[in-house]
Amino acid sequence: MAINTDTAISWFEARKGKVSYSMDYRDGPNSYDCSSSVYYALMSAGAISAGWAVNTEYEHDWLIKNGYKLVAENQDWDSQRGDVFIWGMRGQSSGAGGHTGIFIDSDNIIHCNWGKRGISVDNYDTVAAASGWMYCYVYRLESGASTQGKSLDTLVKETLAGKYGNGDVRKAALGNQYEAVMAVINGKAAAPKKTVDQLAQEVIQGKHGNGEDRKKSLGPDYDAVQKRVTEILKGSTSGNTPKTPSDAPKSEVVNSTTEPKTEETGATGKATDTKITKEDGDLSFNGAILKKSVLDVILAKCKEHNILPSYAITVLHFEGLWGTSAVGKADNNWGGMTWTGKGERPSGVTVTQGTARPANEGGHYMHYASVDDFLTDWFYLLRSGGSYKVSGAKTFSEAIKGMFKTGGAVYDYAATGYDNYLVGMSSRLKAIEAENGSLAKYDTATVTDVGSTDKIEVNIEGIEISINGVTYTLSKKPV
């Protein structure tokens, strides 16, 4: 059957308040992350399987194979129910570097997220602003022939008549009826019958839909499978069904120490990033953790260069998610610093060519041997007498202004411009402080003669941000 948007949204609604968020235990039934929840929701609604719960990097191609079309890339659009958004530029959106969810109407989304520790409905603009208006892609299901409620015989006849196309287009159109239809067309026997336990696990993962769709998909096995599903969800010990942990670690992140990241071998034999859990003295936001060991280095660098810690802490999350972005993990590069072709930096740090930048930008990132090296190089860039006027700034907004020509910088730090960067950074600061308390305590303990704290107010209903009395109105267009 073709994907039914209402069924996908109902999958989310049925689990709201009942499941937790986890990037480690992301395959349900008790916890999911943003991309696995979208995957299983669409699977329940008739999507073809990818063989695994795709992440935000692979979600793009999977959506296209399922009949979705890219309708907007980092630009404004008229959103509607069923639109799927993916945040984070391709190649950089893995882990905490991206996010995804589904629109339930033109303004609101349903998504599994760290902030609410599970599935919630939120205003899109509010969440996007708090996340710093990340690079955004929007996919929309293309209208096509419906298979809803049709018998296998009818689907076979319509397929032979060319109604559902060929290849991946046919797979997307027929959904979980594809194999059955093709078996009849090719004159082959049906696939080997699955056990009740196997079918029950597929139901829990959302592969057979709900209600009448599930009955049609399971056929004569429906009653037995449904009984087994009930036993599993109630915690029955009968059978050999593996149990899934219901309480995943709440705050884990990759590569949050000042040393190069290490790897350990998991049960699959593949190398996996070492996980680090939040401890006293650490900062956390949206699933990323800034370890106290790194925070202490940042504070020392701020003191050395007379830079406000609240500014440095925020910009390092705004630019590199405290090392959990793709380039942060691969290259210890928390700021997206571009490879210049020279290994010796003016700061005295030695760098090498890192991973490739997005195709539309060209070039490569710098690769740092350690996070310490990156911080040394990055703070040197912001030093007094350098290209930017961040050193010596007494307020958060003054430091941001010093990153741009309007504030005396030689170059603009970001192509988005001062106003957009100020709004994004201010929103991120407030979001980080909502989870950790005010960062002003680091300013007063590190920098002398700190100015008055900026007055930043976020008007959720009006989607406005007021910074020191100046009001900025937000739009849906990412910046």
Automatic annotation (TrEMBL):
Residues 235-244 have a biased composition (Polar residues). One of its GO terms (molecular function) is cysteine-type peptidase activity. PROSITE patterns: NLPC_P60. One of its GO terms (biological process) is proteolysis. Keywords: Hydrolase, Protease, Thiol protease. Gene3D superfamilies: 1.10.530.10, endopeptidase domain like (from Nostoc punctiforme) (3.90.1720.10). Residues 233-273 are annotated as: Disordered. The keyword Hydrolase applies. Belongs to the peptidase C40 family. This is Holin. It comes from Streptococcus cuniculi.
